[in-house]
Design a protein that fits this description.
The complex is a heterodimer of chains A (344) and B (263). By secondary structure, chain A is an all-alpha fold. Chain A has 14 helices and no strands. The chains are: A mainly alpha (344), B alpha/beta (263).
Amino acid sequence: MPKTLTKKRMIINIIISLIVLLIVTSLCATTGTQKISLRNALSGPGAEPGDNIDYEIFIIRLTRVLLAVIVGAALACSGVVLQAILKNPLADPYILGISSGAGLGAVIAMLVPGITLGFLGGLPIATFAFTGAIITVSLVWFIGYFSGRSQVTSLLLAGVVINAFFSAIIMLLTLIIKTEQLRSTMYWLMGNIPEKQNTLLLFSCGSFVIIGIIVLWRISNSLNIITLGEYESKGLGIDTEKTKLIAFSFAAFITAVAVSISGLIGFVGLIVPHAIRLIFGPDHRQLIPLSAIYGGIFLAIADTIARTAFGQEQLPVGVITAVTGGPFFLILLARYTRKVSWMK
Amino acid sequence: MNIIEVENLGFDFAQKTILNSLSFNIKKGTFLGIIGPNGAGKTTLLNLLCGLLKPKTGSIKIDSKLVKSYQIKELARKIAVVRQEFVPVFDFSVTEIVTMARNPYLGSFAFPSESDKKIITHALELTDTAQFADRLLGSLSGGERQRVFIAKAIAQDTPILLLDEPTSFLDMKHQVGIYDLLKDVQISQNKTIAAVTHDINLAVQYCDEILILSSDNNYIYGQPNEVLTQERISNVFGIQVMNGKISDKVFFIPLGKYSKKDK
């Protein structure tokens, strides 16, 4: 049984996890269908004219691995936070309609010819997906906020309705999409880490996600108390409205960033928080950073499998997370099940 | 000195008047029992006192300062509330739950200091919950959980303690145990306690003052032996009651249609 968290234990666990992240990232970056010489790769772009192919492949691969880490961290962290503010262990980053909004944005970007609007190193698809995601969560938040007394129920209902509505429009649009675009649309909807050397995208998204995770970590103690209920948390001096707004907007923001990089990768945001909670206990002060780190590790490994398992043919990573994540989670559940009260 | 001053308090819910021109003062260190039929506004009054609801008319002052002008953390250092029992969604241990009570005194990550830990241990010992400090809250029985919530309220270390039916779900031993415990902290820490209760007989024995709220928005405030009479209980609750006296304390037994009333 997880003991009560102390600052020392939390810091030690975070440091150990960061070391694991470093090791996994290096292993993933050196794994691939194309064999490269690590010595050549690490010797840099090459002083002499002519390309250092090993170096270029290594950088492309490393960028991809790091993007996977960023996406995994954002999704897992956002999952934890939404589970806390919705007081629902079944919540995931997509529960409030963000996936359908982003999906709709992406499909529109693929459908309309000649769209070239992109910023911060993102492609038009990413920009549209991000915009769609942000518009959708704002819409869900306003509907949820201005209707009904039980805010959580209204939010969930608004999310479900908007999800269904936008999904229908996505279905409709994929019917009229050109056949050659259909494959890339499907890849996007299943979740796929892009493979391009894109330093600007890496740094902009990376810093957005890290800032988001730090902000959410700062309110982690309030999130602990908020899971006791609104009255309890107000009685303990928590400004619940403010905390929920910060939690909701930053969770939505990092999810939108993740989705705009990689499309809709499922399971990470649901399974990783649960696995971490089963192993390390429910304290969000530790749950948030550890979920982010192990979310990144999980997706980096899943993406490495996606790009190497079938030789040159690459799979969407969303398929891998679903196929490996489900059984992995069941094993954990069987092993630790007595610790989860909502299973009773 | 009055720690709580309620003046001309009124509150509506869904176009229905729940409380109307309610005025009373509570002296520091008093144990107040709040009784009345279902729907008379007892829980509403507790929520008004701790600032969760805003009064429609009138004012509430804590330490001569309006409740609404308190910062939320500042108010949490004045009032602790024990609500009717709930089970949290995620599995926190007893110690973790009680530690959360220190939040009003701590920074954003709220790791407790040594002095906080002493207060927490003391609260666990007082409530006889230290024995299951490491167990998960969800694995405890209703009565054990209730004692944990009282431990949490004591660890919050506030001059005022509000309780909403602290002894519902409890057996007689634990009912008396909880009231003994409340009386202990009232005396040893000079806490002001206000408890909503349906158990008039326990209220008579432990409370210094009684507030009766009735469904027609009237109220009576006073000492138990003045306020609690057979006629008044009978009127407020709309039932027949039998009363008796043991030394100077009165007690009441409700009578229904099929109660055995043979003399």
